[in-house]
Structures are given as C-alpha cells and as structure tokens.
Amino acid sequence: MSDQADNRAPYAQIAAHYAELIASGELQPGSLLPSIKSLSQEWNVSTATAEKALRKLRNEGLVRGIHGIGTEVLDRPSPMSSGAQRQDRGRRTGSSWGSGERSDSHQAAVTAAPEAVAQALNIKPGSDVIRRSRVYRDRHGIVAHSTSWIPAQYLELVPQLAKSERLAGGTSLQLIAEATGRPITQRIDTASARLLKPEDAELLELDAAKMPTEPVVVMTAKFLDVAGNVVEYGVDLGGPGRSWRTESEVTQ
After folding, report:
1. H or E stretch including 78?
2. Partners of 224 in beta bridges
3. Which of 65, 137, 182, 228 has the largest CB neighbor count within 10 A?
4. 168 contact partners, CB below 8 Å, separation of at least 6
C-alpha cells in the first residue's frame, strides 16, 4: 500500500473504505454497515459526516437504507474507471486499481500503429509503438480490457515498458515523466458506447457464439506532457453490464 497521504474529505475516506470491503467481498450482500453513531465514534467524526459517507455509498448503488433496520449491502457490479480516474487514483494511492479490483493478463509488444492510434499519438500510421494491455477484474468478472499505446521513442528511456508484466515503480505515465523530466500536464478523455464486435470476444473472454447484444462502454484517454508531446493513448473496453460514473463537488 502506498504511504502517500489521502487528502480526500473524511466522509469520502469512510465511503471508500466500505466500498473496498464491499467490492472485495469481505462485506457480503445483505450485510449491514455500522450505524451512523458507530461510524462517528469509530472514525472520530461528526454524525453529519458519517451520514454523508453512507449517503455517498447509497448514491453509488452499493448499499440501501432500510427503515428501522440499517444500511444493507447490495450485490451490483462496480462501474468501470476512466484512464483519468485511474491516473488520479495511481497518483493518490500508488495503484490504479479500483475497489476490489486486480489486474492480470499483462501483455506488451512493439507493433505498428493502427491508423486511429497513429492519429491520436500524432505519428505516421505504421510507426513503431508500444502496445501494453491488461484486464481489470473484480469478483463479478471483467471490469474492462485496457490497452495503452505509447510512442516507441520512450522504450530506450524505460525498457520495462516492453515487458509483459505489471510495471514496477509506478504507472507508465509516472515512469516516462520521471525519465524525461517532463511532467504530464494535460489529458483528453472521451466516453462512448458501441455494440460488441467479434474480435472483442477474446479480449473480454466471451463466447463468440453467444455475444451480449447490449452496448458496452468505451473510454479513451490521451495524455500530454508539459512540452505538448502525446505520451500515451489509452482505450478501455468495458465488460458487459458495466457502467461508468463520475462525480464532483458543487459549490455555490
């Protein structure tokens, strides 16, 4: 676990703690969370803060309030994370994993850039790029298949980018920024939905003869350094039934 400080508000830290327990299966569906009074005492916060933490979990669809009984854990797949959300999480905690997630099937290779990737990276189609992919899972199954495309010029600076294993010492963006001395200063995100294609079956470990007919979420993220260079282009293909959500504080 990272020793980096968690600068989130107390209610968000409490909610994240229980979201992790729910996603990991340590808190099973039907389990009851501590009462507002118990939470306020355990976390040394006001009852208003404890109530706000439970409200956040309800808004995320992880729990429901039952009058006269308490707050019950629901059984629903967690939403997927965007590249930007994973970057924020990696910077804050040292890991890009969401609550209860793990990653596997790490693959890396130098390959020719497809046209769409070349356009995103501002390079010529067919140019060498590093293709890194992995699968994010939780107890419900595949959250997303994630692919990162990185210009091959960074391979000399960070050789492990071409190794089929989880990176050591940080995310690809962190390692490249450290090696070049140029911090990542801009990201451009998109979110869309599309029907599954036959080639998606292998990526999401589906039966090609019984492909789901519902659209899936597709998210992209393009990251630029302080000099305006496109350092990485990521594409996340959500698993069937996965949604995407974001939230922000509103000040008046």
Report:
1. none
2. 186, 230
3. 137
4. 160
Residues 245/60, Cβ–Cβ less than 8 Å? yes
Residues in CB range of 228: below 8 A, 6 or more apart = none
β strands within 2-157, DSSP E: 63-66, 70-73, 102-112, 128-138, 141-151
CA trace torsion 239, 243, 248, 250 (10° rounding): 170
| Amino acid symbol at 168 | A
Predicted confidence at residue 3, as pLDDT, reads: 45
Confidence of residue 5 (pLDDT cuts 50, 70, 90): low
How much of the chain, in percent, has pLDDT values that exceed 90?
69
How much of the chain, in percent, has pLDDT values that exceed 70? 94
Question: How does pLDDT run across 58-106, given as a tens digit for each residue?
Answer: 988 889 999 989 999 987 777 787 776 777 777 776 677 776 788 899 9
Burial pattern 32-54, b for ≥16 Cβ within 10 A else e, equals: ebbebeebbeebebeeebbebbb
Contact 106, 134 (CB under 8 A): yes
Contact 158, 179 (CB under 8 A): yes
Q: How many CB atoms lie within 10 A of CB 208?
A: 11
Distance in Å from the first CA to the final CA of the chain = 36
pTM of the model: 0.72
Quick check: helix, strand or coil at residue 209? helix
